[in-house]
Amino acid sequence: VEDMVTPSTCVCRTDEGTLVEGLKEAMLETVIPRGEAERVMVVLGEHAGRLGRILEREPERSRAVVQLQRDEAGRVVTLDYDAICHYVGGHEDD
């Protein structure tokens, strides 16, 4: 997801680099990274827009334990897979 145009539509970039506009949430599928300590973005709920790292997966419950970045307390939250997605953007320190 490159940009949220409205609360219900977005612009996405394909793996080939093409921009696709006017996509609705129902057209998208959440991608959960497979590697250890992979970065994710929270896309739903009170922490929406925050970045974090997956500490643990609970595939049988479709949720993950995520440590939020830039949180002074190092907060760890358990989130449904639908509330997070693989983050491939730049690092917050970039």
From TrEMBL:
Q: Which one Pfam family would you cite for this protein?
A: GPKOW_C
Which domain of life, per UniProt?
Answer: Eukaryota
Q: Which InterPro entries match?
A: GPKOW_KOW2, Rib_uL2_dom2, Spp2-like
Q: Which residues cross the membrane?
A: none
- Keywords assigned by UniProt? mRNA processing, mRNA splicing, Nucleus
Q: Which GO terms describe its cellular component?
A: spliceosomal complex
- Predominant location of this chain? nucleus
Keyword Kinase attached: no
Give the subcellular location: Nucleus
Q: Which Gene3D superfamilies match?
A: 2.30.30.30
- What are its GO biological-process terms? mRNA splicing, via spliceosome
Q: Which family does it belong to?
A: Belongs to the MOS2 family.
Q: Which PANTHER family match?
A: G PATCH AND KOW-CONTAINING, G-PATCH DOMAIN AND KOW MOTIFS-CONTAINING PROTEIN
Question: What task does this protein carry out?
Answer: RNA-binding protein involved in pre-mRNA splicing.
Specify the protein name: G-patch domain and KOW motifs-containing protein
What is the organism of origin for this protein?
Answer: Syrrhaptes paradoxus (Pallas's sandgrouse)
Lineage of the organism: Eukaryota, Metazoa, Chordata, Craniata, Vertebrata
